[in-house]
């Protein structure tokens, strides 16, 4: 999965896109946290809207019976992760707006594009395009994609939209009015880290994210258990034929408000589907193969370097959980072990984030 802003501009200039997507009642998320998560933890009270994930040892990576598993998710290996707090749901528009209002922060998707920086990734001699093209924006899913010829051509269902950002998720004329409880999107990693610094939080490691998704489980495929047929009842994913037909049987054609689906067994919402979630780990498709399968890793922080064969020189980070675009016929990334790579300097309309905090962070 490739989300480089430079690549997106190259897409506009060179006409090639490198990208991959891969009767429910709305819940009041902050009021349904398990009592276990509301108690004092070594004199540190659980922050409002966060859940305590107890320390445990569990099986990380793809399980043997997971028919959708990809090579980068194997082999499964045991990890031990200390306890931590994690957001009950993805950071919402309302929460991000509070941060922006307090700091006057401007996201990457809203900033002017630097041609001198962009041209470093273009063939020598490329002529600077008109200023009308070099405008801030982001990638959005093309809701009108028709006649898909090859599933390898991701440009058939993605498009660069000038003016798309967290406040205008579909571009000029769109808004987030009435969507306070939706996940904030069009967020680059830099934006998420700025929010974390302001809120005294950080992004989860991949191991922490999987520990939270497992909840009280230790080796399940999905956040709700091991039954793939329970997907539609537990996660906002694509229903129909991807990417041209979305029957939206669950009432949500695309993104949904946080907490629209049942929580997992420790009170966390949307750990599968809706929007992808960032982690702090570097994305390396070979990382798990380098590990000692008999060892138990303690609080792993991922690979030392990023590596993706299709984009070997670009740094990417792991994102987890899948999105409203995930479908069993294509990426099936609604599984706990599933992962894709995200370039840190751009976003899209199906990527968000949630934060974590440790007792030590909160005690400061």
UniProtKB/TrEMBL annotation:
GO terms for molecular function: formylglycine-generating oxidase activity. Residues 48-356 form the Sulfatase-modifying factor enzyme-like domain. PROSITE patterns: PROKAR_LIPOPROTEIN (PS51257). Pfam families: FGE-sulfatase (PF03781). Signal peptide: none annotated. This is Sulfatase.
